[in-house]
Amino acid sequence: MSDTSNIDIKSLDEEQALSELKRLALEISRHDQLYYQNDDPEISDADYDALRKRNLAIEEKFPKLVLETSPSKRVGAAPLEGFEKAAHAVPMLSLGNAFDRDDVNDFVNRVRRFLSLDDEALLSIVAEPKIDGLSISLTYSKGELVRAATRGDGRVGEDVTHNILTINEIPKRIKGDGLPDLFDIRGEVYMAHDDFKALNAAQEKEGQKVFANPRNAAAGSLRQLDSSITEKRTLKFFAYSLGDAQVLGVKHHSDVLTQFEQWGFPVNPLTKICCSVDELIERYEHIALNRSELGYDIDGVVYKVDDLGLQERLGFVSRAPRWAIAHKFEAEKAVTQLEAIEIQVGRTGALTPVAKLVPVTVGGVVVSNASLHNEDEIARKDVRVGDFVVVQRAGDVIPQIVEVVLDKRLESSELYSLPDVCPACGSPAERAIDPKTTRQDVVRRCTGGFICPAQAQERLKHFVSRNAFDIEGFGEKQVELFHGLEWVKTPADIFSLEAKDEDRLTSLKNMDGWGEKSVSKLWDAINERRTIDLDRFIFALGIRHVGATTARDLARHYGEADKWLQAMISAGDEGSAAFEELQNIDGIGGVVASSLTHYFAEKRNLEQVYALLEVVTAEPVEFEEVASSVTGQTVVFTGKLELMSRAEAKAQAERLGAKVAGSVSAKTNILVAGPGAGSKLKKAEELGVKVLTEQEWLDLVG
Ligand code: IVH
Question: Which one of 7, 268, 480, 679 has the lowest number of neighbouring Cβ atoms within 10 Å?
């Protein structure tokens, strides 16, 4: 075999190309072996990438010569069936938002209050650009990149390792003293403007779909089953945090970033440590000023408390850390015409007006729908069909109508009012009156309940949504199809679809857009969900006020599906101990408790839940709880706390696996009483509940 390694690709003839492809296949495979199995690479990442790029370029020029053993087929191997699920050892959270200086001030004050810091105490906060891409968690074991996962629902993402391996900027292996055995590096994968333009130009030339913006292009490129496609797209990366911030043994977030740089990860150069709100705002303005020159999209600035010890104390609320916030850039705006107002009926019967717009590009995305919220909002802005309106879009938020351009209003325009009957079922649509305040609810609701087909369809959409049953291949479109055909009227019907399909005149596999393989995949996906975590099960029912976090609180408290269901039925009597217990669960309260009991008081809801439990098993969720001296105990705090704020005390107790309740009952195990404690202390003493001072409590929890 003659040496073809130095021949320019343009000058290769077919015979030389074949010989070069064979040589590259062997060479790359040898380096893979050295790198992945022997821990002993001979060449740099850049040289290795160059080999793979040469291989791809030759394959593109001589597509007929692509070998069965080609590396382009091997990494990411033969196209995968789908993405594997990847559970995150530490959840990937989101961030709360700030929109102006006041919000930033509030954030810093909240942090100070929570930590009981006085005005003189220094508080360093790191400001860094918020990259508009996709968050990724990279797992390194003994210094080697072993897994890359998308954020997903924060707890479970998708395994995209095969695609991440094609990104040059991400080190595949890191070396250094004191490297932890196993840890996650988190950051943002994005596409730079130039690469985005080049990709769209190529897509257009090949008659392929063009992407609306760099973020979509990055997401589309990363979600390829065939990694040779990802390899052709240029993706980039900025590292911004560790999964478990404590793992390096350093004291500050800024030290973590320095370590990332030393390991060869890109860290955003506009990052700065600030010591006051003024400095944060100054950095925000500096970044905003440079935004258009960066060459990639950012949508705000993230502020993070620098001290990792303080971060740990601050902890999280729901899905966002208390120690960080995203200060978003002002939304982008455009003017367009409102063609119509469409009424959507939600799963709880809420009528939502949606603006149908003449399509307009706002911040790189074509917008044709915008939210109008409710009729009070329409009246306040006096929005009328035919008006020219200012539309704004910020990040992932649904576009909104800011105001009407009154100069352009047509003379013939008429005041708009929401219909007082449901457009889907014709039942009266009413605004409830709150008996306590006698005020009208802002939302008009269809009173059709179970007879309204739109509500039923929306309940089904919620049932299969991401944080609920999340059935692969069974999304909103499939709900519309099966509900329209009347094959699926209630959630339980989904699980008998397969059995009934045989008896139908036209079984699914003979319908347009379906085939034997896709149908059998759908049945598999449905069957896979016959066992589900209790929190997802509860959330899937779509009970008003019961979101994913509340569903988790309920699953944590009651443990088993039967116990939970029985408790919900017993709580129907609002004077019962079961209702008292429900209302006392931290994070639940009166509104949620009543919403739950109303739901179960409706016979048809209960029938649907029983029917579902016939075909589905809702399993207890394993909550990772630190076993501590107070795990499982119910604690109440009362009086003034002097060593930490009330919020910190509560968060700490919960972290240690205790339940924090608002009032003392026979179920209370510990009352922590500070100076000024009154009726709760008295009640605890009457009930013989253990009473501790704040210091005694801290000694107990260590
Ligand atoms: S920190 C627990 N830093 O913003 C804090 N996030 O809304 C986790 N993002 O999902 C996030 N740039 O995809 C952080 N410098 C940055 C970021 C950043 C972009 C994204 C990230 C996350 C989302 C949160």
Answer: 679
CA of 34 from ligand 1 middle (Å) equals 35
Q: Determine the average pLDDT of the residues in 677-694.
A: 92
Domains of the chain, earliest start first: 9-74 (1.10.287.610), 96-327 (3.30.470.30), 333-408 (2.40.50.140), 452-529 (1.10.150.20), 533-619 (1.10.150.20), 634-701 (3.40.50.10190)
**Side-chain-facing half-sphere of 104: CA atoms under 13 Å:** 25
Ligand 1, CB within 6 Å, residue ranges: 93-95, 128, 130-131, 135, 151, 188, 240-241, 302, 321, 324, 326
Active-site positions? 130
Confidence at residue 624, expressed as pLDDT on a 0 to 100 scale: 66
Euclidean distance between CA atoms 581 and 338, whole angstroms: 50
Q: What is the largest CA-CA distance in the chain?
A: 95
State which ligand 1 atom lies nearest to the alpha carbon of 135: 13
At how many degrees (to 10) do helices 577-584 and 561-570 cross? 120
Q: Whose CA is nearest to atom 22 of ligand 1?
A: 94
CA of 266 to the centre of ligand 1 (A): 15
Q: Could you tell me the distance, in angstroms and rounded to a whole number, from the CA of residue 132 to the centre of ligand 1?
A: 9
**Single-letter code of the amino acid located at 288:** A
Q: What number of CA atoms fall less than 13 Å from residue 117's CA on the CB side? A: 16
Task: Tell me: pLDDT of 358 over 70.
Answer: yes
Specify the ligand 1 atom closest to the Cα of 132: 19
Name 41's bridge partners.
Answer: none
Q: What is the pLDDT of residues 487-499, one digit of tens each?
A: 999 999 999 999 9
Distance 302 CA to ligand 1 centre (A): 7
- Tens digit of pLDDT for each residue in 545-573? 898 889 988 998 999 999 999 999 999 99
Mean pLDDT of 161-174: 94
Task: Assign 324 to helix, strand or coil.
Answer: strand
Nearest CA to ligand 1 atom 17: 130
* Of the listed ranges 4-13, 32-41, 205-214, the one predicted with least confidence: 32-41
Q: Ligand 1 centre from 529 Cα, in Å?
A: 31
The 3-state DSSP class for residue 686 equals helix
pLDDT band at 37 (very low <50, low <70, confident <90, very high): very low
Ligand 1 atom showing the smallest separation from residue 321 Cα: 2
Residue nearest atom 13 of ligand 1, based on CA coordinates: 135
Q: Using alpha carbons, select from 253, 224, 49, 96 the residue that is nearest to residue 150.
A: 224
What's the predicted TM-score (pTM) here? 0.61
pLDDT of residue 78: 33
Tokens 């079984």 locate to 507
| Dist CA 665 CA 583 (whole Å) | 12
Query: Which of 189, 302, 312, 317 best tests ligand 1's pocket when mutated (most atoms within 8 Å of CB)?
Result: 302
Q: What is the pLDDT of residues 75-109, one digit of tens each?
A: 433 334 578 889 999 999 889 989 899 999 999 99
The answer to whether 665 and 642 are in contact (CB under 8 A) is no
